[in-house]
Amino acid sequence: MTHAPAVWYLMRSTGIVALLLLTISFGLGVAATNRWHPAGSRLYVTTEIHRYVSLLSVAFIAVHVLTAVVDPDAQVRALAAVWPFGSSFSIGVAALSLDLIAAVVITSLGRRRLPFRAWRLIHWSGYAAWPLAFAHTIGVGTDAHLWWLELPALACTAAMGAVVSWRVLRPAV
Amino acid sequence: MASEQRTHDESRIRSTTRWLLYGSIAATAVFGGLAARATHAHTSNAAGSSNDVSSDDSSDDSSDDGFGGAVPPASSSQPPVTQSGGS
């Protein structure tokens, strides 16, 4: 038996949920850029929910990373979680994704102190975090070939495809 | 009028964020359960095949239930994921 099965299961499940939340966050970000809002509400609703989902995904990513570091079976060192070089490809892309997300979150929290162009450049770089996180999900995976991971992964890919198409075909006003 | 709109928007934000939080926690529990089941199915299959090597298990479809196949955290000497996290 593993050292701590609960930690092992929590690491796997929070990873999938974090990818789902990240996808929703990206979708809402693009929706806000395209000035979409629910009927009867203002744009403020979209941006607030985008902000909330982003922070929620960061919380799940934090639990995922923490459990990966704590779980002796996962064999992920704390440095490897943030430093993309020197470990396997799957862990490296996850670390890079984490770094990009951290940069987006930190610059968003201090947005008022940053020039708009700098903030936007860093925010756009966040787009790269999703494919990296996806590559990690599929590449590292203990569960990559199981339907209950393939299904959300497929849904996330379709959603991201639609969102990116929406962003490209309908540039922001 | 403006304050009514604001109240409506904030109520919408509150209810959406609440459902997202509950949904995320529920999804974590569901995926955790599926991960546990996958691990259990794999270890059961591994134990079954090692204990009963000579038996005819062609009717046993438990390995094809969509849950099996996860590399199990069976022992500390065989990590569940084949990755090197160290640098």
Task: Give a brief rundown of this model.
The complex is a heterodimer of chains A (173) and B (87). With 173 residues, chain A is an all-alpha fold. Chain A is built from seven helices and no strands.
Protein model, in words:
The complex is a heterodimer of chains A (173) and B (87). Chain A has one domain (5-169). With 173 residues, chain A is mainly α. The N and C termini of chain A lie far apart (56 Å). Chain A contains seven helices and no strands. In chain A, helix 1 runs antiparallel to helix 6 (129-140), helix 1 runs parallel beside helix 7 (147-169) and helix 4 (89-109) packs antiparallel against helix 6. Chain B is mainly alpha-helical and 87 residues long. Chain B has a domain at 2-46. Helix content of chain B is 57%, strand content 0%. Mean pLDDT of chain B is 68; it is low at 53-87. Chains A and B meet through helix 1, helix 2 and helix 3 of A and helix 1 of B.
Characteristics of this structure?
heterodimer; A: 173 residues; mainly alpha; 7 helices; B: 87 residues; 1 helix; 57% helix; disordered C terminus
The secondary structure category of chain A is: mainly alpha
The helix tally of chain A amounts to 7
Helix % of chain A is over 70%
Oligomeric category: heterodimer
Q: Distance N terminus to C terminus of chain A?
A: 56 Å
Report the major sheet of chain A: none
Q: Per DSSP, what share of the residues of chain B sits in E-state strands of 2 or more residues?
A: under 5%
Shape of chain A: globular
Query: Average pLDDT across residues of chain B?
Result: 68
Low-confidence stretches of chain B: 53-87
Distance between the termini of chain B: 60 Å
The structure class of chain B reads mainly alpha
Helix percentage of chain B = 55-70%
Which stretches of chain A are poorly predicted, pLDDT < 50 over at least 5 residues? none
Tell me how many strands of chain B there are: 0
Cα gyration radius of chain A (Å): 17 Å
Number of domains of chain A: 1
- What kind of sheet is the major sheet of chain B? none
